[in-house]
Design a protein that fits this description.
With 434 residues, the protein is of the alpha/beta class. 46% of the residues lie in helices and 13% in strands. The chain has a six-stranded parallel sheet, sandwiched between helices. It has a four-stranded parallel sheet with strand order 9-8-7-10. It is globular, with a radius of gyration of 22 Å.
């Protein structure tokens, strides 16, 4: 099967969706499918080889912004557009992407959901012209914010369209009105042009089906998987008990809750020498938040027991995870999946996560962690202590998590299930055939 998978890049920081998509396409290729990972907006930032480096980048972020704001740039020659698509330039401007005004972000989102009928039609048409001779059997969209492309793909390529759903709700809900309502309406309007949506967890498939007004059978569930060749258990447990955090360093991921839990445990004195290692993506927008958390650690007198390692280089994730006794990313919003949970388990590291969103589903499916009350530093501290004070239990939980990842959360399993969805008929076809 020939599959073109369209994925939005970030330009300068690691993103769980990009890692999932890259692992998916690599595994599809390993299974013999003719699959391509096609970057959009900004270059991909990955910690393993890019699945299809031969695929060019389309809809460069600078051109998309200029064409949204100024009609002149909707008619500029290709040589000028190409200059704005230079990889180095895109990576540079991506450092400031989070500083876009909320109104601009809302307008851009609503317009993007209009796809080939939008102000950026010139950029999307260039993508279509690349796809037409490729003749894919399926065009896969990384997330629902790209679903506006589905009508144009159907019209010009006549192939199936599969659209993953992974975290759109929190972004759309953050937009100011009237753009929030317009974006949700635009997303729902694209549904009839998509053959099947794919939720990355049961939790998120159910949530998005309700919010988009879809029948449950319109959203298949293919849980995320990871490449096990770059994630393995450590040879030995760390000598010093070490709590870890590995996700974007932002408020939504709950770093402040973990820091409060860490301070509580240090104040109790139950775990002498306890350390905290914090790693993950940090953008310019996150710097003030991270500084406020460092100030909290200084105030509590425990800054010397904490390492904060933003933007860990590619290839160092495994070593970081292997240095931990337990991992926690106590996100305060509805996490669609939480790839960091599976990555930690792949390294034999038990996790502690709040009992909401996709986390209970993952913990129950793997047995690789413990749940705590959401948005509650005290409950989080107690759950972390439970594992750290009983290393034998932590080791058993860690081994259980690793076995579950090998069995149910590998990239190979994800690719096989995703390919089956791609090969199946659309919801409408299945109803007619039943």
């Amino acid at each position: 099967m020939k599959i073109a998978h369209l994925t939005a890049g970030t330009g300068n920081f690691h993103c769980g969706n990009c890692h999932r998509d890259n692992a998916l396409v690599r595994a599809l290729r390993a299974d013999g499918h003719d699959a391509y990972l096609v970057p959009l907006y900004l270059p991909l930032v990955l910690d393993e080889p890019e699945a299809s480096p031969e695929a060019p980048l389309f809809a460069g972020g600078i051109n998309m912004f200029l064409q949204q704001k100024l009609a002149l740039f909707r008619h500029t020659p290709r040589w000028l557009d190409r200059a704005f698509d230079a990889t180095g330039l895109l990576r540079y401007v991506s450092r400031f992407a989070g500083m876009t005004r909320a109104r601009d972000l809302g307008e851009m989102t609503v317009e993007t959901l209009r796809g080939t009928d939008s102000h950026q039609a010139k950029e999307w048409q260039r993508l279509m012209e690349w796809l037409i001779p490729l003749r894919p059997d399926v065009v896969a969209l990384s997330n629902g914010l790209l679903a506006g492309l589905a009508p144009g793909i159907k019209r010009q390529l006549g192939c199936r369209v599969i659209c993953s759903l992974q975290g759109e709700d929190s972004f759309l809900d953050s937009l100011p009105e009237p753009h929030r309502s317009a974006a949700w309406a635009g997303l729902a309007a694209t549904a009839r042009h998509v053959d099947r949506f794919v939720g990355v967890s049961e939790y998120y498939a159910d949530l998005m089906a309700r919010r988009m007004g879809l029948p449950p059978e319109a959203v298949a569930v293919v849980r995320n998987g990871v490449s096990l060749d770059s994630l393995a258990p450590a040879a030995a447990l760390p000598v010093v008990p070490t709590i870890g955090y590995f996700a974007r360093l932002c408020h939504g991921k709950g770093l402040h809750l973990l820091i409060e839990a860490f301070i509580l445990i240090k104040q109790r004195g139950t775990l002498p020498g306890l350390r905290l290692r914090v790693g993950g993506a940090m953008t310019a927008v996150d710097e003030a938040y991270v500084s406020s958390q460092e100030a909290r650690l200084v105030e509590a007198g425990v800054r010397g027991d904490v390492e904060i390692l933003p933007n860990i280089p590619a290839g160092e994730k495994e070593a970081f995870l292997q240095s931990l006794s337990v991992l926690s990313v106590p996100a305060i919003y509805g996490e669609a999946f939480g790839l960091f949970v599976i990555e930690a388990m792949a390294c034999g590291i038990p996790v502690v996560e709040p009992e909401h969103a996709a986390f209970p589903e993952l913990i129950h499916a793997t047995g690789g962690g413990v749940l705590c009350a959401p948005d509650d530093a005290g409950s989080l501290a107690a759950a972390l202590e439970q594992l750290l004070l009983t290393p034998g239990l932590a080791e058993v939980v860690g081994r259980r998590g690793r076995a579950a990842v090998e069995r149910d959360f590998s990239a190979g399993r994800m690719a096989r299930e995703f390919a089956a969805v791609c090969a199946a008929g659309s919801v409408g076809e299945e109803r007619r055939g039943s």
